[in-house]
Design goal:
Largest sheet: none
Distance between the termini: 29 Å
CATH architecture: Orthogonal Bundle
Helix content: over 70%
CATH topology: 434 Repressor (Amino-terminal Domain)
Length: about 60
């Protein structure tokens, strides 16, 4: 498993755990829903650290 796949799996896990949609994560992070979908489908070879931090902070700081 490469790092992109691991990040994708972790995002899917937390989306499921919190019962969130991609759209909700998009609103909380400021990322586009399309961009999040690309990450979830392993369709990118590059993820910026700032993107990872935005997602991590959204999952960590916001109650479901």
């Amino acid at each position: 498993m490469d790092i992109i796949e691991a990040i994708s799996k972790r995002i899917k896990y937390y989306l499921n755990l919190k019962g969130w949609s991609v759209y909700k994560l998009s609103r909380l992070t400021g990322l586009s829903p399309n961009g999040i979908q690309v990450i979830l489908q392993n369709g990118t070879h590059n993820i910026k650290l700032t993107t990872i931090l935005l997602v991590a902070h959204a999952f960590d700081e916001v109650e479901s």
